[in-house]
C-alpha cells in the first residue's frame, strides 16, 4: 500500500527524543524489499553513512540545521551508495537549502517540529513548498519534494497543490483502525488533489 518506508532516526541530541538506528533498520531490511528512506535527526548525520547503507538504507536525508554546508556529506553519502536529500525545519527559510539543491535527490520540508509524532500540520510551510517547487522547476532539477508532519487526508492534498510529490504519514496510518485502508485513502486524496 506504500511506495517507501520513512525511518525517523533520532539521537536524543539534535532532537529531544531517541528512536532507533542501524540494528532496527537491518532487522526491517530482512523482512522488506521496500525503498528505505532514512530521515536522520542527528547531530553528526554523516558519521554513519556506510553503516546505514550496509543496514539497508536506500536514501538518507539530513537537516540543513545540522550540516549548514552539506557538500562533503552529500559526497560521502554517494560514496556509500546512498541517495541523498536535505531536510528543512519549519522555521528555517528555503534560502538555507537553495544553494545545495543540485546535490539532492529529495528535499524534505518539515511541516511540524522534528522529534515527535502526532503533531498538527503547520500551514505556513506551504509557502516554502511553493518556493521549493518553483526553484526545482526553474532550475530544471530532478528533486522530489517531500513533506513530513501532520499529513492527513485533509493536509496531503494541500501539500500536493503547493508542489509536494512525496508524502510521509505516521499517525494517519498507524493510528487508524485499518492501516492499509488508511494508506489507500491518503493515496486517493492525493491523486484527486
Ligand atoms: Zn521524518
Summarize the structure.
By secondary structure, the chain is an alpha/beta fold.
Rough shape? globular
Q: What level of helicity do the residues show?
A: 25-40%
Largest sheet: 7 strands, parallel
List the ions, cofactors and other small molecules found in this model.
zinc ion
The assigned structural class equals: alpha/beta
How far from one another are the termini? 19 Å
List the helices and strands and how they pair.
Blueprint: E1 4-10, H1 22-29, E2 35-41, H2 49-55, E3 59-63, H3 71-79, E4 83-88, E5 106-110, H4 125-138, E6 144-148, H5 155-162, E7 166-168, H6 171-174, H7 179-191
Parallel strand pairs: 1-2, 2-3, 3-4, 4-5, 5-6, 6-7
Mind explaining what this structure looks like?
With 193 residues, the chain is an alpha/beta fold. It is built from 7 helices and 7 strands; from the N terminus they run E-H-E-H-E-H-E-E-H-E-H-E-H-H. It has a 7-stranded parallel β-sheet with strand order 1-2-3-4-5-6-7. Helix 1 (22-29) runs parallel beside helix 2 (49-55). The longest helix has 14 residues, at 125-138. The protein is globular and about 40 Å long. It starts with a strand and ends with a helix. Bound molecules: zinc ion. Residues 6, 8, 39, 148, 168 line the site of zinc ion. Zinc ion is lined by residues 6, 8, 39, 148, 168.
